[in-house]
Every structure is written in C-alpha cells, then in structure tokens.
Design a protein that fits this description.
With 175 residues, this protein is mainly α. It has one domain. It has seven helices and no strands. The chain is globular. Helix 1 packs across helix 7, helix 4 packs antiparallel against helix 5 and helix 5 packs across helix 6.
C-alpha cells in the first residue's frame, strides 16, 4: 500500500494546527457566557486551556503514530478499514461525515440564535434561515480553500474568543 507524495499538497503549520484542534474539541464560543457567569473567568480560561491537553494531545499522538505507520489519505477511515474491515471503515467514515454536517448546521443555527437574541431581534423566519445558510456557505468556502485557510480562520476566531476572556481575567485580578 504505497502512495506517492503529492508535492502540491499543502500542509498546516503547527501554530494553525493547534487552533484547529482547539476549535474542534471545544466547539467554539457557544456557551462561553454561561461558563463565565457560573464558574468565573479564571476557571473558564483554565477549562479552555486544559481540555485540549486531555483530548487533543492524545488524539494527535495516536493520529501521528498511525499516519507514520500508514501514510495514506483518508485518515482514521482508512485506518479503521485496514484494522476492522470494510464495514467498520465505512461506518467510521459515515459517522464522521454525518457528525460534521450535523455539527456545522447546529453551530450555524446557534450563531444565528445569538444574533437574534442579543443584537438583531428582527432576525426571525426566513431571515434566520438565510443567515444560517450564509454562515454554512462561508465556512464551506473556507474549508474548500484548504487546510491553511482553515488554520488561519480558526486562529483568528479563537484569538477573538480568547481576548475578552483574558481581559475579564485581568480585570478580575485587578479588582
């Protein structure tokens, strides 16, 4: 099972990869307000910094090991298929694919709900649907552009999310 390396294949740098992993494990900013109000900004920041270490690093190490052992495109779908057969490989790929679609749609609707509840109360009915659809289309466009674009976008969004939390921690320490 040998594959030729594609010289045009673009890869994400470690800096961008860290933010992609963090986004994938924490689900983004949804629920951050309730985390800060119930646990405080310090505990929220600790949670957001520690979760990736307990989830991302082990998964990353397993992925790195399997990528080294089986350098094929397809990732865990191909690894599952090689280890357990076509049926389980199919299910692993199907579950991940389905989860990606469901999570993408859920996050788009949650984002639009936030806009409607806090900033644009007139965002109801078909307008709510259009904003959700536009967000899905935008995120799809970023993904189609490649891993480097995904890494940059995840980095920008996560830094934008961390700035208010860090500001609240600093303000809390001052007072």
């Amino acid at each position: 099972m040998t594959t030729a390396r594609n010289p045009a294949l673009r890869k994400a740098t470690l800096f961008y990869f860290v933010f992609v992993m963090f986004s994938y494990t924490t689900g983004g900013p949804f629920g951050l307000e309730s985390m800060v109000t119930t646990s405080g900004p310090g505990m929220t920041l600790l949670y957001l910094l520690f979760i990736p270490f307990f989830w991302c690093i082990p998964v990353s190490l397993v992925s790195a090991e399997l990528t080294t052992a089986m350098p094929v495109e397809g990732g865990f779908y191909r690894w599952t298929r090689a280890a357990f057969g076509d049926f389980w490989g199919f299910l692993a790929g199907w579950w991940n694919w389905s989860a990606s679609f469901l999570l993408g749609g859920t996050y788009a609707v949650l984002f639009t709900d936030y806009l409607a509840n806090y900033y644009l109360p007139a965002l109801t009915g078909y307008k709510h649907w259009l904003v959700s659809f536009a967000l899905i289309a935008f995120i799809t466009w970023i993904n189609v552009r490649g891993i480097q674009m995904v890494g940059k976008a995840a980095t920008i969004l996560e830094i934008a999310m961390f700035v208010p939390v860090i500001l609240m921690v600093v303000l809390g320490l001052v007072k």
